[in-house]
Structure formats: C-alpha cells, structure tokens
Amino acid sequence: MTDSPSAALPDYLSGLNDAQREAATYGSGSGVVAGPLLIIAGAGSGKTNTLAHRVAHLLAEGADPSRILLLTFSRRAADEMSGAYSASPARSRVSMPGWPVPGFSWAGTFHSVGARLLREYAGRIGIDPAFTIHDREDSGDLMNLVRHELGLSGKGKRFPLKGTCLAIYSAAVNTRKPLAEVLLTSFPWCAEWQTDLKGLFLAYVNAKQAQQVLDYDDLLLYWAQMVSEPEIARELSERFSHVLVDEYQDTNHLQAALLLAMKPDGMGLTVVGDDAQSIYSFRGATVRNILDFPEHFDPPARRVTLERNYRSSQPILAAANEVIAQARERYSKELWSERVSSERPQLVSVRDEVDQAAYVVEQVLAQRENGIQLKSQAVLFRASSHSVRLEIELTRRNIPFVKFGGLKFLEARHVKDVLAILRWAQNPRDRVSGFRAILLLPGIGPKTASRILENIQAAVPGCALLPEQPVQERVQPAWLEFATLLEGLPQRTWPASLEQVAQWYEAQMDRIFDDAAMRVADIQQLARIAATYPSQERFLTELTLDPPEATSDEAGVPLLDEDYLILSTIHSAKGKEWTAVSILNVVDGCIPRTCPPAPSRRSKKNAACSTWP
C-alpha cells in the first residue's frame, strides 16, 4: 500500500496522502458548497492534519473565514488544529496564524460555541444575556441546595446524593430519553425515587432560571431548542456556510440533533471521527451518530476512509485490526503502516496486582536503560483506582510519576474562589458563586451569607446595595472593603478587574491556607491566562468549559525531577503518543468488550498487563 502525490497540486496539499487529499479537497472546483462528508479516520491516520487542510483548502477556494464553524471537543484539539493549519501556506488567506484568528472566530468546543450563540440570541429565546455558567461542582452544589430545600435529604431511606442526582439529570438531557428509561438502564438502584427526582429536577431548573445561571448541559439543550425554531435554524444555516465537526463518534443525541437542525440537507457539513474510538458512552455519547450519519441525507453523505497510520508499527496495527474486526457493526477499514518492526505486542499473565505492579516497574526501568526516557513511557488503565498498587510500588522505588485524569486547574479551591467572585460580580443572583465568595470573609458564616443573598434576590435588579447589607460590627470594615471591590469591578477594563480581585484574594490566602505560597502560583497563572482573552465573559465561559491543568504541585507534577513516568486513564490518553506503553488489567470486566467474550481458560482473577513497545 503506497501513496503518491499527483502533479500540479498546490504546495500545501503535496504532503497529504491520497485519502487525506480526497477528504481535504472534496467538492473542489464545483463553485458551490458541497454536500455532506464523513471522514472515517483510523487511529494515528493524520485526522487533525487532514481537517486543518480541508479548512485551508476552503479558504484557498474563496470561502469566507467568518462563515466557517469548527467544532472540537477540547482546547487541546483546537491548539493541535492551529499548529496543523498554521503550517499551511493557505493560511495567508487570513491575516495571521493562530487559533482563532481575526476573521476566523468561530472555532471551539460545542459548549463554548453554544455559550456564544446563546448570549447573542438571548433576547429572542427568553434568557438574560448576562447569565453565568456553572461548572459541574457548582451545579452539584445548587442541586444539593434544592435537594435540601425540598426535604429530600431527610428521607428515611438514603436519597441519591447530589453527584448522582446531577448525573441522572445530565443523562436524561443529553440522551433525550425519558427519566424512567434513564433510571432503568443506567441507575436502577435509584428507580424507587423517580417521582421525587422528577420534582427535584423541576425545582433545579426553576432555581437556575431564577438565578440566571446555566449549567454545562444547558448550553447544548438551549442551543438545540433554539434551532428547533425554523427561522433561527435557517439564519444559522445561512450564517455558517461550512460546519466541520471533529471526533463525531463522541457526540450525543443532543449534539447530533442540533447539527441536523442547522444543516438538514447536509450542505457544507463535514464530520470526522472513528466508530472504533467511541469510548465516551458514560457522557451520553452514542456510536449510532457516526454509524447512521450518511443515511440522514439524500443522497447519502460521501465517505472517505483514512487507513494509513503514522504512529505505530505494523505488528501493533495487526493486533488492533483483529480487535476492531470483532465489532458487530462498524465501518470497514484496515489500518496499515510503512513502519516495520520485528517486535510484537506482548500479552503477559500475572498472578495478582502485586505481581502486575512489579512486572510493569521492571519493564519501565529496562526501557529506561535502553534509552527510552520515563517521559516517553506511559502506563494506561481503565479506571483511576486501577493504578493504586502501581503507585505504591513506584513510590517505594523512588520513581517519579505524573498521573493524568486527576485534579484540574479549575478544581483547585483557590482558583474556584477567585472565579466565584468574578461570577458573582457579573451576576448577583448567582447564589452558589455568591455563597462561596461571601464565606471568604473572616467572621461571616452560612446564616449571614444566606441572609445577604436573600436580600439581593428580593432587591430591584441593579440595586443590590452591598455595603448596606447586615453584617456584625466586627467584620464591617472587611465587608465594606469587599463590597467596594465588587461594585467597582464593572467599571474596570479587562483584565484589570481580575488583577484587582487577585490582589484582594492573595491578601487573604495566608489566613485561609496553610500552604498559601504554593497556591499563589496558580493565581498568578490565572492572571496570565486572563490577559489572553478579550473580555471577562469569554474568559469565564472558556475557562469553565475547558479548564487547563493546575500549575502547582497539586496537579502531581514533580518539581524536583526532570524525568517522570506518565500514568493515565485511557480516556485522558486519547490522541497522545509515547514510545512504550503498558496497559493494566487487560481482563474481562476491567476493559469492556463490545462483543460477547470468548471462552477462556484463564481465571478472571488473574490480572494481565499488555506492553506495546
């Protein structure tokens, strides 16, 4: 299998193989927007590069960059797209490289793009354009508050906790299934609470509306409801001549529905993905979206398959092809590579987790002696708890490591405190952010905080009169300073407003934390990140929906070692590359299968480790 570039191609397409070039140039020269395109991109097949070149080619053929909508699933994906796109000479059609660039502003995650569209159309769909966005933790706190107000926390039997309630609510929203069906299929132990849960979710929605807040799921739900209005759907279809979607196998029913509402005929719609890499069903994603995509249109969508792999050797791909072939329903493809190797993947049987940890560590050290740095090696696992025994062994042998899938930047308490102050200043009706912000002051407890928030809720919008709120005399000076800070923020330019909040907060940190010094670095990093955004609104939205990882050692990154082993869940590792990889617990039940397991003589109690050099 070979690829040979044809003559008379533009320079920026000459580095693509035949299938990549076919996908990048689909609809070329017709003078009209092409019909729907499905790009099935096998692992390591240059999907990001192909999609970036399709954008470049559209621009080279005269497409208006302001009418191109690119939807990715993470900021990292957008950054990768930026690097691939910037490498193309066709980028000269816009004013500068980078992502997004002037004139090419509609690129981001589904949720971040949804937030921008909702603010723009807020007046027409009945929401306040100044809404704030809750992250998962804030949403859980509001759910818990409503749960308590309804008396559900005092039930004789244990009513589901806030995290479970939020997960059930999110599943119902994203899968567009009735609550009864969601409970039956995914949360059967909560089925007895169906009536109470229905009442809880209604009260939760009412609380969000009263406080002018949206949660993570609302950004898709409101967007889908918005495009259910034919006039708005038509406007958006005309506004975006081309819509390109990355990782389509990870979309849920709601995302697919809003795309089809915007582009019912599929004109200008390109989706990229791989049915064999659909691993996010726990987030409501369904592989049916990519399997059924072509038949939504008449004629069916054009399909281009990328099979050449640039990442792995042929023996690894042969094993992967055999695994993929077991899927009951799939797109046919055969991954191949020009990278030959005499080494084959190893399936190693071990007695238990202790032996597994010892074996993996010995392999890691042996690879290091052979010249492969620890940073170039990774150990993957299905669930974070699967690596506990390995972490103990690594610590015992003084081998530094970083574990991904843990604490994120936004999850750090000090970062959440600063963001809560900004959100509350932007939207005084946001009870969760306000409660968190008020409790930062010394001498003010939950009762006083609740009373202040109730007063603000009852006040005429815009007349909160923060300095006049009732607080004890001993905390009056601190409260007046804080109230003056909040009232002055709307008059300050961005990012000066965040810098002022950060300055106030840093003065409180020695009182709040025993380890304040290490946390200051995160606050300073937050200020640097803020300077890259054009407004507070964009900053709060983007950081909430796609936060970077922490900069302090709370993220687990060794500060004294320049080399360290990578530990990661399989989900967090998607799209990354290492020279040597070990996978823990490759046994039925730990690594789910998509087909019935074959009879096996090996006891399921035995842990297994698969090493891929």
Radius of gyration: 26 Å
Q: Mean pLDDT score, rounded?
A: 84
CATH superfamily of the largest domain: P-loop containing nucleotide triphosphate hydrolases
Looking at the structure, the CATH topology of the largest domain is: Rossmann fold
Helix tally equals 23
Number of E-type strands? 14
Cα distance, first to last residue?
24 Å
User: What does the main sheet amount to?
Assistant: 6 strands, parallel
The geometry reads as globular
Question: What layout of secondary structure does this protein have?
Answer:
Layout (H helix, E strand, L loop, with lengths): L17 H7 L12 E5 L5 H14 L7 E5 L2 H12 L20 E3 H16 L6 E2 L2 H14 L12 H14 L3 H8 L7 H18 L1 E2 L3 H10 L2 H10 L2 E4 L7 H10 L6 E5 L14 H5 L9 E5 L7 H11 L21 E4 L3 H17 L7 E5 L6 H9 L4 E4 L8 H14 L4 H8 L7 H13 L17 H13 L7 H17 L3 H15 L5 H10 L19 E5 H4 L6 E5 L23 E5 L1
Parallel strand pairs: 1-7, 1-8, 2-3, 2-6, 4-5, 6-7, 10-12, 10-13, 11-12
Antiparallel strand pairs: 9-14, 13-14
Question: How does this model look, in words?
Answer:
The structure is a single chain. The protein has 613 residues and is α/β, with parallel strands linked by helices. It has four domains: 11-114 and 221-312, Rossmann fold (3-Layer(aba) Sandwich); 132-211; 345-407 and 557-612, P-loop containing nucleotide triphosphate hydrolases (Rossmann fold); 410-547, PCRA, domain 4, CATH 1.10.486. Helices cover 44% and strands 10% of the residues. It is built from 23 helices and 14 strands. A six-stranded parallel β-sheet has the order 3-2-6-7-1-8, with helices on both faces. The chain has a six-stranded mixed β-sheet with strand order 9-14-13-10-12-11. Strand 2, helix 3 (75-86) and strand 3 form a beta-alpha-beta unit. The protein is globular and about 75 Å long.
